[in-house]
Every structure is written in structure tokens, then in C-alpha cells.
Write a sequence for this structure.
């Protein structure tokens, strides 16, 4: 036990009545705070749990989460999640990833920034009867102003030579072909 050095009275401390109300729907600037790979409750898949810290233009300091089911026995759920992961990666300027840490920090260690589109979810009831209040989910990602998108990979030398050979053969008459 540790003595706090003074007495606190909850009635004197105040509080925010709407601290956990959902954010209004719309676009927000954010930084990616964390990306954690977790197993689904059923144990049949995995998802990336992303935490975003809002940086503006309003609601600074608020937090929003989203999950991307990158491995799921439901092919539609997995396809949608992978499409969303691609959109998210393009928004933060990543062409490829191998580790979830790459989603959080750039090569120089700076946090990844992007704009996220937040929607308000309706209150719901879980399969186990648990009541869930209205909340937020992320339904869109785009690069922040001033961010750069990844450039498409340049074709490899063999592919370029094959294309040149194809172009040459298409423009040359049959007797001039090698």
C-alpha cells in the first residue's frame, strides 16, 4: 500500500460527461499509435488491431480503433480486410510490409500519419447478450496533405528487354526479324 500524501474527494474532482461518447462521423487527421496482431475469438483467424490517436482538426487526443482480419476462414471478410489493409498502406506510404511495426513508425522512427474516415456505429447486442453502446469505426484512409504515396515498382531489366523485343518485332517487317 502506498500513501497518496493527501485525501481526494471524488465530488471535488469533476470529470467529463461526454469523454467516451463516439466521435462525430467525418475525416480526422491521426497518427498510428499501435498495430497488434491478435487471434480471433474463435481461434480460426488473425486480425491487426490498429489504434489511431486523433491530431485534428478537432477532437485532438481522442482515440479510435479498427481491426483488419488479414486471416479469416470467411473469404469475403478476408478479402474486404485485405482491400482495407491496402488502402491503409497506401495512405501511410507503404508499398510492402512484413511486420506490423512497419505500420506504426517510418524508417526514420517517426510516427505514421494519415487521415481516417470515422463512422458512428449503432448500439448493439452481442451473441452472449452483452449490450454495446454506440461507438466508432474507421471506414476510410487517405494520405495526409503533404504525404507522399509509394511509387509503383519499376519493371525489372528482363521485363524491360522483353517489352523492347516485343515492340521491335511488332514494328519490323517479317523478313527483318531476327
Amino acid at each position: 500500500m502506498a500513501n497518496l500524501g493527501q485525501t481526494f474527494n471524488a465530488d471535488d474532482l469533476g470529470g467529463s460527461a461526454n469523454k467516451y461518447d463516439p466521435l462525430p462521423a467525418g475525416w480526422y487527421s491521426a497518427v498510428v499509435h499501435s498495430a497488434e496482431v491478435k487471434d480471433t475469438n474463435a481461434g480460426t483467424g488473425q486480425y491487426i488491431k490498429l489504434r489511431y490517436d486523433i491530431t485534428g482538426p478537432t477532437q485532438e487526443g481522442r482515440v479510435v480503433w479498427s481491426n483488419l482480419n488479414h486471416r479469416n476462414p470467411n473469404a469475403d471478410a478476408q478479402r474486404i480486410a485485405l482491400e482495407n489493409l491496402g488502402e491503409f498502406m497506401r495512405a501511410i506510404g507503404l508499398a510492402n510490409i512484413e511486420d506490423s511495426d512497419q505500420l506504426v513508425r517510418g524508417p526514420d522512427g517517426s510516427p505514421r500519419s494519415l487521415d481516417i474516415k470515422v463512422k458512428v456505429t449503432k448500439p448493439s447486442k452481442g451473441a452472449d447478450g452483452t449490450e454495446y453502446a454506440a461507438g466508432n469505426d474507421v471506414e476510410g484512409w487517405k494520405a495526409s496533405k503533404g504525404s507522399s504515396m509509394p511509387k509503383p515498382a519499376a519493371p525489372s531489366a528482363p521485363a524491360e528487354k522483353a517489352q523492347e523485343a516485343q515492340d521491335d518485332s511488332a514494328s519490323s517487317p517479317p523478313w527483318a526479324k531476327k
